[in-house]
């Protein structure tokens, strides 16, 4: 499979406001389409008329290039980085916490950044929780973070539907856990599926067919540990048979951290299954697609060059930052090690790397 | 997604016989690698050193071309086609039967072909049954077909393992139904998984990890209506963590005919899920990969140009025949209609098309 962080396609989607009848014919957001493995924002090709043009990454000097980026530099001057941006976007797992434990020095680092007037945003591809549920996790860990600062891919799915004026009389079929349902409910959408379908089985008899709701206009697929054939068939029927039905993925992460003890198959499994039966590629709203970045930039009115994305994964976090045109900082407190970063086969190079975010404090001190 | 029947890559795999310790380092079969959507024979890239070279289809005159094939012709002279080949390979569903009903005129057609000394072979991507179980289905429908004439993808999975001298002290983890287990057992392989894991659930607690058998050297994935997260995680662990573990797919069919009443999500779902979590592409042994075709040609010592592939699906059956360098006949008794064949967007053109295989009889009579 082709893997490249530097080869991208620019996708322009006409921003036309529309009646409910036309909601599936256009979407009002501009994206960059990232052709990096399958972790990409892709089209529901039967629905959207993408205007694709071959393009290539532009580095900050504005010079277009197909060559790989310069090798990442160890972060030496924290002040310089902090002063150069307005907003820090933090991935959570591997950056703020590991499983249920806070990473050393996080509260002090966040306090320092707030004291300097920096905007802090927390982004996670985990769709099993809603914003509110994440807020409780932050609280339990002793961190003072508001719901409005949290962007989970469960929220992104609902926000995406809002951004395209997905009609309120249509329904959403959910393959995923509770977080997606909660966010859809908050956004005022009708949904079905989710945990309720986890115990359902299909008993086949000659002539048997599964009925499905023809009002389903979008299937949202996220991580689902109660995934089963019933859900596969229901989602497949909606996408294949309901005209204009959207196929939205919260993320395509190969693995996730359900427990600290091992890596667990992630949302990429559930999305891969529905992609396999529908032969359609999903529209991904989580990292590394730029939907959340665009949403944040619009919501807070910030320039993307004023953002620094901080994460522990190259092919989601760092790519997400690079796709959005932000500065990027890799921390080695999660899944990526220095040898992985420096492996000649790795083409994803952040601007800087450091051990953990609290290095901001010691590197400030050292620079004084 | 790029779909083309004419763009292929030639894949040469060094045919080295090997000790058990080296079984995963080479495979003794030559393939053609088909880049048609995801229904392709692909490598476990970490394991095999494929020697790929860009190539393109050769038509029967030997002229290489990237252009689409000539439009399919209606079959007018059955005798000419019958006389030009030695072997007919029939897809089953949509060609021989539909669900549990025989298609009109099939027994007489098969009898006629046998009386003319033609070899008959029946190939199906359905892996839920073994050869023996398929034999019973033919018998129930009043057809005299021996087990040796039947090539289901369940059999292909076991035959593939034999062809690479997969060691008998290694184990196979099965995501799929009973047919695969039966074929593995007949071939003398140790296996685990299958229906037994259908009811298993994962109860997460902090620090919990799933143990897996380190002797698993291959994960075989086929259609599985009892698919669940336990199987996804078990298969993923084997492929990601057991050195050299193979990822074999019986097929990547998007949909299948569990009942006549509707199309059901097919083996492509289960394979897509494992591909999504492992970020590996499977080695596909069913149609349209050429493993079964190569196996048949070697077993019976027949030239592929002496084979006519008869099927009702363009992107599996007809592509399978074309990838193998065989003559191809599309029958309209299954899922493909004449407008679908003649749609300008369809690039897969068989040599001939006709309504059903018993047209062989009427077209013979008409030609006399």
TrEMBL record, chains A, B:
Enumerate the Pfam families for this protein.
Answer: Hydrolase_6, Hydrolase_like
InterPro entries xrefs: HAD-like_sf (IPR036412), HAD-SF_hydro_IIA (IPR006357), HAD_sf (IPR023214), PGP_euk (IPR006349)
Top-level EC class: hydrolase
Subcellular location(s) of the protein: Plastid, Chloroplast
Q: Could you confirm whether the keyword Plastid appears in this record? A: yes
Task: Report the main location listed first in the record.
Answer: plastid
Q: Which is one GO molecular function term here?
A: phosphoglycolate phosphatase activity
UniProtKB keywords: Acetylation, Chloroplast, Hydrolase, Phosphoprotein, Photorespiration, Plastid, Transit peptide
Q: Name one GO cellular component term.
A: chloroplast
Describe the reaction catalysed, as an equation.
Answer: 2-phosphoglycolate + H2O = glycolate + phosphate
Superkingdom as given in the UniProt entry: Eukaryota
What the entry lists under SUPFAM superfamilies is as follows: HAD-like
Gene3D superfamilies assigned to the protein according to its UniProt record, in alphabetical order: HAD superfamily/HAD-like (3.40.50.1000)
Does Hydrolase show up as a keyword for this record? yes
Tell me its EC number(s), please.
3.1.3.18
Name a single GO biological process: photorespiration
Function of the protein: Photorespiratory enzyme that dephosphorylates the 2-phosphoglycolate produced by the RuBisCO oxygenation reaction.
Q: Which NCBIfam families would you find in this protein's record?
A: HAD-SF-IIA, PGP_euk
Family of the protein in this entry? Belongs to the HAD-like hydrolase superfamily. CbbY/CbbZ/Gph/YieH family.
User: What name has this protein been given in UniProt?
Assistant: phosphoglycolate phosphatase
């Amino acid at each position: 499979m082709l893997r490249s962080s530097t080869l991208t396609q620019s996708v322009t989607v006409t921003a036309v406001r529309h009646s409910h009848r036309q909601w599936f014919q256009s979407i009002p957001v501009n994206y960059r389409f990232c052709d990096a493995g399958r972790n990409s924002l892709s089209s529901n090709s039967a629905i959207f008329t993408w205007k694709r043009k071959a393009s290539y990454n532009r580095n900050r000097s504005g010079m277009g290039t197909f060559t790989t980026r310069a090798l990442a530099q160890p972060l030496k001057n924290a002040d310089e980085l902090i002063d150069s941006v307005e907003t820090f976007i933090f991935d959570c797992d591997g950056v703020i916490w590991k499983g249920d434990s806070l990473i050393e020095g996080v509260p002090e680092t966040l306090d320092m950044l707030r004291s300097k007037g920096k905007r802090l945003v927390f982004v996670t591809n985990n769709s099993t929780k809603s914003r509110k549920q994440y807020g409780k996790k932050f609280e339990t860990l002793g961190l003072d973070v508001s719901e409005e600062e949290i962007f989970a891919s469960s929220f992104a799915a609902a926000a995406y539907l809002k951004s395209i004026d997905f009609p309120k009389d249509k329904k959403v079929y959910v393959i995923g856990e509770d977080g997606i349902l909660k966010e859809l409910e908050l956004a005022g959408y009708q949904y079905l599926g989710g945990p309720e379908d986890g115990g359902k089985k299909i008993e086949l008899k000659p002539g048997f067919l599964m009925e499905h709701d023809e009002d389903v206009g979008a299937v949202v697929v996220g991580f689902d540990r109660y995934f089963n054939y019933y859900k596969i068939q229901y989602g497949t029927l909606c996408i294949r048979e309901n005209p204009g039905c959207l196929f939205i993925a919260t993320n395509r992460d190969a693995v996730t951290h359900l427990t600290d003890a091992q890596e667990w198959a992630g949302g990429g499994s559930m999305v891969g299954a529905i992609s396999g039966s529908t032969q359609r590629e999903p529209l991904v709203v989580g990292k590394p697609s730029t939907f959340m970045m665009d949403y944040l930039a619009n919501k807070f009115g910030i320039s993307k060059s004023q953002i620094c994305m901080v994460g522990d994964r190259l092919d989601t976090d760092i790519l997400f930052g690079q796709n959005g045109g932000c500065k990027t900082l890799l921390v080695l407190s999660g899944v990526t090690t220095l040898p992985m970063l420096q492996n000649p086969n790795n083409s994803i190079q952040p601007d800087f790397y450091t051990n953990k975010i609290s290095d901001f404090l010691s590197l400030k001190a050292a620079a004084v």
